[in-house]
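User: Can you fold this complex?
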Amino acid sequence: MLSVSNTTLPLPTIRIRGRSFMALIVVPEPPFEAWLAALDQQMARSAGFFVDRPVVVNLAAVAETDDDPATVLAALEARDLRIIGVEGVEMSLLRGTPWFGATLAAPGREGKPDKFIEVPETVEPAAPVAEPTVEAVERRPSLLINRPVRSGQSVVFEEGDVTVIGPVSSGAEIIAGGSIHIYGTLRGRAVAGLLGGAEARIFCSKLAAELLAIDGLYRTADHWGHGLQGKSVQIWLDDKELRLAALD
Amino acid sequence: MSKVLVVTSGKGGVGKTTSSAALGAALAQAGKNVVVVDFDVGLRNLDLIMGAERRVVFDLVNVVQGDAKLAQALIRDKRVETLSLLPASQTRDKDALTPEGVERVIGELREKFDWIVCDSPAGIERGATLAMRHADMAVVVTNPEVSSVRDSDRIIGLLDSKTARAEAGETMEKHLLLTRYDAARAARGEMLKVEDVLEILAIPLLGIIPDSEDVLKASNVGCPVTLHNPGSGPARAYAEAARRLLGETVAVTMPTEKKGFMSRLFGRTVA
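Assistant: Here's the predicted assembly.
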């Protein structure tokens, strides 16, 4: 008999993880023979699109006809659709299917209607992923902004570097996953290395910033005083310390 | 071709209404058909500045909501024939303006006038965004001090993103009107310099309006300064700005200290 002692062993921590994913909502419509034929055609044109995609079957239209939901579900299962849920139907109508007694599919996030999805016509049938032979050089995308970034504007680019040609105003902010380059006066905030990028740097041709941050470490203008104000400056992280130096 | 011009600033009290009235009057004096529209619903002032407060019957909200015809709400200026005013409502708030209603009214005004000058309320909320929504060009009114400059910068950002023009991918013409400029204080370093403001905002300069008692005097008698005292410094500066809006190339006059040594010593008593 397994018993839980409340004195000695500490209870294990329950770890709960969340995951959100997209399910395809398939809505069979009468007449079902024609609908199934259309589905077959679509699946042939978009080979691979349905492979391993979770599918929720909406039986609302079926429930309004005399057709047996079980037949429709069986027809869908025969097409190798990965059905994870059923919705739009009363439980009693599902008698005789594996879904009888199961919880019906949960609705989407509150207030968010289902999106219509365009099925691509030529999806490759789950091509085998090519094994990378050499260690690929990490490709960093970058964002170029060639106009002033005004007060109140916030440029967030988590994927990589941000380059601004023009001033960044007081009250504006640039947030980048990588480095930040500003060819103009930096008067606002620059936050670089957002996702653990201790290597990231900030460059600006004229420093008048309100706040600088790299990899979560931030400093306000008070910290660096007036010495570098108005100069071309680079900012980097040196052993958990934010360093500033004039570029020329 | 009618032009919709929004006079905006973000910050309050910098001179939007004064500038709307003065520019509108100057454009009308140049022979253009002009309407000045007060978008400051709930805090209307333009009617006072234009001296029409006792002639307001219907207002912008009535027209937007379809309770009155445009022609009923328009007030024609008694001094300049081609100048009209569309007043705001004092008893309502900005929520009384609907985007569709404003679009319709602006469309109707475009058929009647050469210039539609929209006097924006302060702030960045509904009233201000609706005032700039359908503008073809903007005059950003700024005082030479840091908070006004930063707010103007914010407004320029909105002009470039939230207007119908910006959303259609077209550029919005923006001009800086520096008001309350005091040459003496700027020389003493008590105010931002013109170059500093221009460097921060990075938009072309439409004009510099000197800080002057003439503006206050004109407001108190309910007359745009360009009509009240055309020879005064502010009136000349506004008239020049209006000519630049009409496409003329006019060099910007820098206000200078015009007080002599004695009057500087005894400034208060002599004036």
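Residues 267-271 of chain B have pLDDT under 50 and may be disordered. The interface with chain A takes residues 124, 146, 150-151, 153-154, 156-158, 160-161, 199-200, 202 of chain B (CB under 8 Å).
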